[in-house]
Amino acid sequence: MNISDKAKKNIYILWLLVVPLGTYLAFEYAPIRQIDWGTLSLLIVLGLLTTIFPFFISGTTMFLVQWVTLVVFLNYGIFAELLVMQLFLIPIAYHMKTNRENAYRIVYSSFMFFLVSILCGTITHVLGFDLGSLVVKDVLIYGSIYAFLYVLLNHLFLYVRDVVTGLKPKFFTKDFGWDLIGLLMTLPFGLSLYFLQSYVGTSAFALLGIPFILITLLIRLYSDSEKVNSDLNKASEFGHELAERMTSKEIIDMFIERIANMFPIDAAYIVDDLYGSFEILRAIEDGENKDLHFAHEELEQSLAGIVYEKGVPTLYNKQSEWLHIKPPFLSLEMQSVMCVPVYRNKKIEGVLVLASRNKYSFEAYQLKIVHLLCSYFAVSVEKAKYVREALAKSERCELTKLHNYRYLDRQLESDMEKLSLGQHSSLSLIMMDIDKFKAVNDTFGHHSGNLILKEFAQIIKREIGSSGTVARYGGEEFVVLLPNYTKTEAFHVAEQLRLKIEQTPFIVQSDLDQTAGEQIIFITASIGISTAPEDSDEGMSLLRNADRALYTGAKQAGRNRVAEYVR
């Protein structure tokens, strides 16, 4: 949330006017019970441990500390609870990566939790709760009221804040739902700890506190792995989308755009080694493209040049770690920096630099994911180069004698136009990919791989005949255009092709060992299908949809199968 400097100033003033005086008034007039400092100290330690180890579910950060503050309130009242809650904001501020620019957020949180503590405690007392009560019915009722009010008022204040700042928020959000779930998880722990420590003393913390912290750590480990897996899936999808782009400009544009969306960055730069001289190939700062030019020597002596020389991805968590090797394009406002070499053909061709104004913005695993994405990027650029050269030669694949991508592109455009004019009732596109083709090349050699590609192409051509257009899309990928075929009919054709390929013996000539000779092997293919107009009314989208169905519905589901595109 971006707010004006005036609004930030007003937040600080509001806090100074309300929180110190309000804390004093709570001390003077709110009901209070004599504090057992040993018990309170253990509660504080338990609460700090809970806030130090938050976890993330579906993009929501959860600090399950309310069960501890509930016990503090039930025992000692409003004043003790609001002080303890303010103390718990310290590790929360750390996790929010608080700095001078966004410190107003933690100040507002302090103000908000102060008001929530006062209101929840006051309402609970007015309804009749007595501090330190051990009447089970009263504790269950008033403890539940206090806890639910805490969540409700917390989100009410957030809702009002967003309305005042000009946003159009929804009250019942995903975060609100997760907070309610967190409350339902922790309320029984809080009530149980209250009763148990009242009857058995400090051993209650070992009986309930330690198991809760262990459960929290286990959930955190699971949620962390879930987040890593989610990012890896996004990276995989990103790689496929990059592979769909046919020009270097399209690839670079998409790469920068998606990197900016995937990671918490304020600036991104691609430093390219162009014939032995460093240049800024692309730069984006705060979402805007920049045209930057610097001397080769300046870039070479900076962190970009050092990472280029060493070839090792590097993560800097704060400015003091990279200031002595600051590149000329990097603003002094930046703190966290990721610098990743871009390899192509086992040679470093450039460096990607990502920067954030916040300290510790990036996780170590994200550095590895960016490194992976840079590999996809380099491969896609290289692929675009080869595709461009191949398209310039002819409309036929020299190896398979099928149509090539250049012809396919034109034919697809023509068929889509006929569809729009009503000359075709439908247009189905089948995309095929030979499973584990690299393993064939590695085992039997590229000559055998070429023999398989040629025979594979002839099988498709014989099966399709004059019913459609068959083209080699690139590598081990093939495309079939079937005018006037519904998706069901296309699926039947694709399944017949899959079975034919699966049952056909392919003869290879191994040239990688001393016993060279002919061998018979069997291969399989994964197939994706998309149909116009139901899936798309644009040719390239139809192609992308079939490709997505191939990889997500067929490859990722186990290979050797046919998958339809599903919206």
From TrEMBL:
A Gene Ontology molecular function term of the record: diguanylate cyclase activity
Gene Ontology process terms (BP): cell adhesion involved in single-species biofilm formation; negative regulation of bacterial-type flagellum-dependent cell motility
Coiled coil start-end: none
Annotated Pfam families: GAF_2, GGDEF
Stretches assigned to the GGDEF domain: 425-567
Keywords: Membrane, Transmembrane, Transmembrane helix
UniProt keyword Lyase present: no
Domain of life of the source: Bacteria
PANTHER family cross-referenced by the UniProt entry: DIGUANYLATE CYCLASE DGCM-RELATED, REGULATORY COMPONENTS OF SENSORY TRANSDUCTION SYSTEM
Protein name: GGDEF domain-containing protein
Annotated source species: Psychrobacillus lasiicapitis
Lineage summary: Bacteria, Bacillati, Bacillota, Bacilli, Bacillales
